[in-house]
């Protein structure tokens, strides 16, 4: 009698067990490193190899993209250039007025004996990569512990809040974006002076725990509230729509994040020290 | 009268020169699967591409996963051992570039699971490949969310982002169909057979 080979013969079972054990060990190393806010050996090796390649690819991509934009938007760029030139002139005159006020302010503070709050030290960084799988929305930056970056440092750019550092290696750090579902940021609605918490939700973010009596309008600005790791006043985004149900305790505001993830190239890390 | 000629029969049975070779060419395979180091290099390249150029390609919050498509193809083409190990290494690459350990188990299972189908289906069957990629995407995403919930105490992310999984399945299936068409075309061009 000929024996029919089983779907799960002994060899397959052995391979399955070996793979599961090795994959679980690799996963636990990664999770352990992520919980500590550091990087595993595999992260360090791959990061070291990938960073220069990724920077080169990003540089080529951005160069091609910007050239293509110039070619396709020549008219728009000319008009925008004229508008920005006018704005630069306006800002220059406003800057002169503010300088005068600043000098006056410093003098008054000196007289009152009030010490100026020193701003957090900032570190410039380039974005060298994004999370390859969509499970977590992260970016990789080319600064690490040797540059002074630490876990939970807040990352911003000119438009607003980008996220915070979740693990820092020697030369490379990963930043959890504000629109990641695992991100939670204490937030403040500027117009109504209302507190809430902003959670990531795919391409958007959601501000939860807003009381039912608060009148939230489309376009309302949301900034960070002072929290354990976040300083106050960094723009998070603007209200896109409001989800208000009569039978719910709170209303939820869907936010358009201030940053454009696709065009992130340079960021600032606000160090906690 | 009998037509039996003993001399002719004896000639026929006598050991002589071997038969002339067949003129028609017989190929056992259209293409030979790449070696494991080559597959590993392709997986590394896919991870870098996903981390850089393809990160900007987004459709309703979903991103293309070349790694999933490659791992499933390898499993179907080469079996459980190669598929499983490639899935493991692909997962390690993906986690090292950002993920915190949520990808390695899902991609390993995707490669191994595709390898289980290798003995039952032709690897270049479009419906089988697409179905396997769709299933692998769902399994990978569910395992990633499960690990996020267990290891990072993140609850409810699955509910708010389920719809992106559906779009990711669609994107990956489209990429899988395109990849298979390219592989088939390459095989035809290499062997000269249609």
Q: Which band does the percent of strand residues of chain B land in?
A: under 5%
Q: Residue-averaged pLDDT of chain B, rounded? A: 82
* Domains of chain A (count): 2
Number of strands of chain A: 12
The spatial strand order of the largest sheet of chain A comes to: 1-2-5-4-3-12
Give the CATH topology of the largest domain in chain A: Thrombin, subunit H
CA-based shape of chain B: elongated
In angstroms, what separates the terminal alpha carbons of chain B?
A: 54 Å
Strand content of chain A: 25-35%
The residue fraction in helices of chain A comes out at 25-40%
What is the CATH first-level class name of the largest domain in chain A?
Mainly Beta
Helix content of chain B: 55-70%
| CATH homology superfamily of the largest domain in chain A | Rod shape-determining protein MreC, domain 1
Uncertain spans of chain B: none
Secondary structure class of chain A reads alpha+beta
Q: Give the spatial strand order of the biggest sheet of chain B.
A: 1-2
Looking at the chains present, what oligomeric state does this protein adopt?
Answer: heterodimer
Task: List the secondary-structure elements of chain A in sequence, H or E.
Answer: HHHEEEEEEEEEEEE
Q: Kindly report how far apart the N and C termini of chain A lie.
A: 76 Å
> What is the overall silhouette of chain A?
globular
- Number of alpha- plus pi-helical segments of chain A: 3
What does this molecule look like?
- The complex is a heterodimer of chains A (273) and B (194).
- A 6-stranded antiparallel barrel of chain A has the order 1-2-5-4-3-12. Chain A has a 6-stranded antiparallel beta barrel with strand order 6-7-8-11-10-9.
- In chain A, a hairpin with a 4-residue loop joins β4 and β5.
- Chain A has 2 domains: 73-112; 121-273, Thrombin, subunit H, CATH 2.40.10.
- In chain A, 36% of the residues lie in helices and 28% in strands.
- Chain A has helices at residues 10-36, 41-72, 74-112; strands at residues 122-130, 138-141, 154-156, 161-168, 173-177, 184-189, 194-201, 204-211, 221-224, 235-243, 250-257, 266-270.
- Chain A has 3 helices and 12 strands; from the N terminus they run αααββββββββββββ.
- Chain A is α+β, with helices and mostly antiparallel strands and 273 residues long.
- Helices cover 66% and strands 2% of the residues of chain B.
- Chain B has a single domain (33-52, 62-188), classed as Arp2/3 complex 21 kDa subunit ARPC3 (Orthogonal Bundle), CATH 1.10.1760.
- In chain B, a hairpin with a 2-residue loop joins β1 and β2.
- The radius of gyration of chain B is 24 Å and the shape is elongated.
- Chain B has helices spanning 6-13, 36-51, 66-78, 80-96, 104-116, 126-151, 157-191, and strands spanning 58-59, 62-63.
- In chain B, α2 (36-51) packs antiparallel against α3 (66-78), α3 packs parallel to α5 (104-116) and α3 (66-78) crosses α6 (126-151).
- Chain B has 194 residues and is mainly α.
- A two-stranded antiparallel ribbon of chain B has the order 1-2.
- Chain B has 7 helices and 2 strands, in the order ααββααααα.
- At the A-B interface, α1, α2 and β2 of A face α2, β2, α4, α5 and α6 of B.
